[in-house]
Design brief:
The chain is mainly beta. The chain is built from no helices and three strands. The two termini are 25 Å apart.
Length: 91
């Protein structure tokens, strides 16, 4: 997927802070056999029949933590994803 950033339009004085695309990409039902491979750390498999299917979104930063946010505790820093990949297996 590519986003042509030259064609993004927004009002003066406002800043783009988030881009959401392919919001239903990889969506499955819990009764479908299969799993998702998601970029969590060095990779994580989520089987369709687990309770995790109730989650409807996943935010995964690929460019590291936001040092513009004041972190009271270093434990609140998010870790980089080693492999920015995604996969799905059905049936």
């Amino acid at each position: 997927v590519r986003i042509d950033t030259k064609n993004i339009k927004y009002n003066k004085g406002f800043y783009l802070t988030r881009v959401q695309l392919l919001q239903s990409f990889g969506a499955t039902l819990p009764e479908e056999e299969g799993y998702l491979f998601v970029p969590e750390g060095s990779g994580m498999i989520i089987h369709n029949d687990t309770n995790v299917y109730k989650e409807n979104s996943m935010d995964v930063p690929f460019y590291g933590p936001d040092f513009g946010i004041k972190h009271e505790n270093l434990k609140t820093l998010e870790y980089d994803n080693t492999f920015p990949i995604f996969g799905a297996k059905m049936n």
